[in-house]
Amino acid sequence: MALGPCEVEMDAESAVIEAFRREWGRVVAALIGLTGDWDVAEECAQDAFAKAAKRWPRDGVPRNPGAWLTTVARNRAMDVLRRASREAVWLHEAATLLPGGDDPGGPGSGGFDGHEADFADDRLRLIFTCCHPALSMEARVALTLRTLTGMSTAQIARAFMTSEPTMAKRLVRAKHKIGEAKIPYRVPPIHLLPERLGGVLAVIYLLFNAGYSAGAGADPARRSLCSQALDVARALSELMPEQPEALGLLALVCFQDARRDARLDTAGELVRLEDQDRSRWDRQLIDEGAVVLAAALRLGRAGPYQVQAAIAACHATAPSAADTDWLRIAHLYQRLSQMTPTPVVALNRAVAVAMADGPAVALAQVEELAATGALSGYYLLHATRGDLLMRLQRPAEAADCFRTALRLAESGAATDAEQRFLARRLAESGESA
Prior knowledge:
single chain, mainly alpha, Rna Polymerase Sigma Factor, Chain: A, 20 helices, elongated
């Protein structure tokens, strides 16, 4: 049965929305390679999507939406270059960067060094440029969101709880820095790739955690950071399938994001992992994480993200909280602590030890960690110590820990739901704030 006019329009509208999610970063990346101008690239990409919103309901969705958008955006970029009276030689060189026809998204060339020509997607160059170590972490995050996901300046500002003018200035400074520092638009050379890849993965995980920590009542722009980070992680893994840590991060994000909706109850209160309704976990994401993690481990080069993903897999694949393999989790945390010997990893390992070997053994580890002073201002250290003391029937000491944890949480970056959870734990100890 043929679709009516309204149905065709709705189908085309959905196609534009899906194309924006999937193709924005690809189109912008291609245009930056074409023009060398980040602002022109974004402007022309926006113009292409605006044309799609008008034409697709009328003419139908093209067979290859990404190629259609790239062609329209490229043509618009060429017009901009002509109007700017660029030199004829430069215009000719720019025109050859992308092939014509219906599929302009091929590898192309653009002054790449050696191995870089082997990378078929301009997004890879864009990811590494956005996450260049010469840029501040704030700039890397903002630029990644703007250019790779298409989030507006206003949305990014809301997600990171700052003003739109402040975020706009941050983006402008980042783009100027790329020009002033002559940051190359390329994948780094082989000898720099491991170090640079680690920086890219850190930005993606930071984006994910910023969204994951947002409560149900948080601004949609902030909550959407999880899906944006997941999309970027998928793109990176597709582009670098032989990099096990890129796969490890994607698997980790899949496992964690699968549990996101179950972390809060209908009243917006935090639910502990062991108490979560596992029927609300996203089985499709868990299955994806399992497949990706297996692919990463087959490469035989274990790294921190793969170990964290393996820990998350133990939780995600356990049929119930009682079936969780805590001995394996404690072993994995031990391995992770050898790779990244940080106090937070040590604290997380103690939590696993508490479940595997009992709270008394874990409390000794937490007390030893607390004595170093490394996490004295970290509310989860005190909350963990309080939980262990409660399990050991020492409520008065636990209350002091929960009180300290709550004070630190209120003055730090903890969400409202986390603060209310600590207040409930304090009340369970028989004390009040």
